[in-house]
Fold each of these.
Amino acid sequence: MSQPRRVENLHTDKGKVPIYATGVVAQPWADYGAGDHAVWRELYERQRRLLVGRACDAFLAAQDAMGMTPERIPKFAELNPLLRAATGWELVGVEGLLPELDFFEHLAHRRFPVTWWIRRPDQVDYIEEPDLFHDLFGHVPLLMDPMFADYMQAYGRGGVKAHAIGADALVNLTRLYWYTVEFGLIRQADGLRIYGSGIVSSSGESIHSLESPAPNRIGFDMERIMRTRYRIDSYQKTYFVIDSFEQLMEATRPDFTPLYARLATQDSYPAGAVLAGDRVLQRGSGAGWASDGDV
Ligand code: PHE
Ligand code: FE
């Protein structure tokens, strides 16, 4: 696939003041081939089938409302008017993972960076870095939800702040992102559901996170999460369960500056630990867990 055009100063304030938009590229939509669209279709159909009854209602409804379909890779330019109208967010294309501060700046301005390229057919079951399917199918739908949309912007602002405070603060904040935005579960009136993007974009983990006896499922506790290491090369050993997006919003509203200072003096917990104060929904059997490799 050819390299996309680089767009300079995509976001300008009435044509005068350039606003930070580092690393943004135009989605080279015409360059996707039949094979790319076929990968999208295969993953989309498989995940939608799995996610009905597993993903939270807000996620499924938002995906429908955005008009994402299996037929072809969506155009960011077609999704953006809907997103903008719903919550004021917009998608920007990127080559892949951004430097942390750039990522936070985008979120703080309600721009969600979406990797423009999609995985190869031999990577449908596993890919190490986020691609278009993970970013678009996994992350974007919930940006249609007003509460979650606000949470993501608040997170971006919090990220800019944590970046200025230092590396330890960023570690704490990244754990929060990992165990909520990427791998979070939510208790819905009719049962446990998925809202984390890392789960909804993985067929194996969509089942594992809800149905396997191996992992712990523990009630959301922000400070506890900020001290908990995680897995980047396997399913999570622990999932944290929120009651609502409002709970997430309320818990993260206070200024984290004193919290970061306190956490800097405390040890972290292993990814699979169950602690005395935990609200345990399921104590994992630990089947299949690696004994090392938490990050
Ligand atoms: N309240 C946090 C702070 O003061 C920012 C934040 C908001 C972080 C939402 C995560 C999620 O740093
Ligand atoms: Fe992600």
Note: The chain has a mean pLDDT of 93.
Amino acid sequence: NDGYRLWLQYAPIEKSDLAEGYKQQLQQIYLSNTSATMQVIQDELDLALGKMLALSPRYSSSNNSSTAPGLIIASPSQRPSLNEMITSEEYAALGEEGYLLRTISNGKKTQILITGNTDIALLYGTYELLRKLQTHSSLEKINLQSSPKTAIRVLNHWDNPDRTVERGYAGASIWDWHRLPDYIHPQYLDYARANASIGINGTVLTNVNANAQVLTPYFLRKVAKLAEVFRPYGIKVYLTARFSAPMELGGLSTADPTQPEVQEWWDNKVNEIYEYIPDFGGFLVKADSEGQPGPQNYDRSQAQGANMLAQALKAHQGIVMWRAFVYTNETPDDRAKQAYNEFKPLDGDFDDNVIVQVKNGAIDFQPREPFHPMFGAMPQTPLMMEFQITQEYLGQGTHLVYLAPMYEEVLDTDTYAEGPGTTVAGIIEGRQSGSLLTGMAGVSNIGTDRNWTGHLFGQANWYAFGKLAWDPSLSSEEIAEEWSQMTFTNDPSSTETITRIMMLSHEAAVNYMTPLGLHHIMGWSHHYGPGPWVTDKHRDDWTSTYYHQADRLGIGFDRTVKGSNALGQYAPEIQKLYGNPATCPEKYLLWFHHLPWEYVMPSGRSLWEEIALHYQKGVDQSREMLYAWQSLSTEIDPARYHQVESFLRIQEKEAIWWKDACLLYFQQFSQRPFPKEVEKPEHSLEYYQNYEPKFVPGI
Ligand code: BDP
């Protein structure tokens, strides 16, 4: 088992009574095979039931068949009698993508009903039923209705036309542009199945650092083919739009959004795209950021830039996802404040089909960040969440770090924007803006590696992202349990162990990388491994010293009123709570405060000691993860067991590397000994500074 089948393993169900019950229930299925999506449903059932139960179900779409089906998969238009069972209110509440899964009885026989308003809803419901089988759940008395809480649930591929993947750690891009549109790699279909199984309904095929070439007919033909493959699975394609494309492709002398010829160029380009792809989703745009062109080049606002594209897309129901990751080179006092300062004054200025895509935190996908202050600050603008699934700052393709607890932490945080209870999740669900345009984006961790994500547990991050995009209130622990059952085994004790490893992993990584609110102290450029000494680069805000500010007196970035006052961008309740080191959650302490080394922590220990002990704890936790996994050596198939085991050994080694490098570096300033619990560094600081890799493959 090389992991290719992801969470859709469909392992044979060995408990005979359970399997027998499922078989009885599922041998006769009502399904009217009238569309490509219904065919997908039937194919998936054939595959899954064949593998799990050695069952070839019989399908019928006759409403008066003599044997009553044990499973009915139908919308009311396919089976009008459903209207007698399910009220029109219930159907209305499901919306376009929601499904209802219910155990019903027709007098003599128990039946399972999967219904919804569209074929895609039925597909989602089918995957839910298969999940129940995969987790060996009872089919008696099911009664669940589920509708997505966000509308746009997209993967952002940072994939380039030459098949390199920016910050990709799992091989090359899965888009084989060269052979498209004539060759459909089977992986595209499995990609679509995997995404549909977790409710992902969109994919941005190309890198945010965009290449205008993807908008040329040469590429559009290929994109159209992918769109065709994904359509039956409810997945729309989107592209990144390079702001200067009118100059690069159209030969114009400007890309100024206020110039009619620029608007006209985009209008024509968009019309052309819709000729190739009638249900094209729209554009994702990175502008005025890290060298990307944008409206600032012409002294125009982000809203002017976004609205120009929005206008071109409007007639086709396309949308613009405009990124808030805007920061200029000369960030004067604090990069964390830039996006808010740029966007807040524009609240209400964006067209209806624009949604602003905001990273979870204000810096840049760090191992842990407090929520981005734009959440809650833009009541008249739809905001979508951008999480990074690829682990750029969290051990890349090598460390086991389950990201859902981090996503959950941000989603559950109260912004207090409109009084208590205005959580980040509520904002991205549109409860503040009232807009139906809502969404969540995840920067993809997928590549051509056989197991898709490089590290097998990277699959869990893709899975959890989809689940949380559908319902941001889900528990990361329950998602871990479910994923582990579907991916590895249903054995309760193994599931418990795997879930424990996963739930420990993010905190462990934060401890050995950036404890207590430290951030952006990773290796230069490739971002792998420790680099707290990174300084003197052409941009201050790309160095480590800019962020940790360690000196003889203390450490941390003062974002209170006495410092950059980035804290002033949050609601007064947050300002009060985080503004005082005594009440600021410890996990954000050095994010918001510069404190002396001898500062007394709630534990009674000094800040220095506490930092040192956190690094040690990260190392201890990485060992705990390794040993826990080793206890599963006879439970997991050898190939997957050994890959994860080797990676966990690397993780332990590198946790030590982080601890030693960071502590030796900070010790120069603190001038204090290590607490006795901390293992002695193996080498000198100089060694670590020279050891720093100059290049890490996979970028
Ligand atoms: C940074 C990455 C860079 C991306 C950028 C972004 O290092 O490669 O282009 O984010 O999100 O974290 O645009």
Note: The chain is about 35% helix and 10% strand.
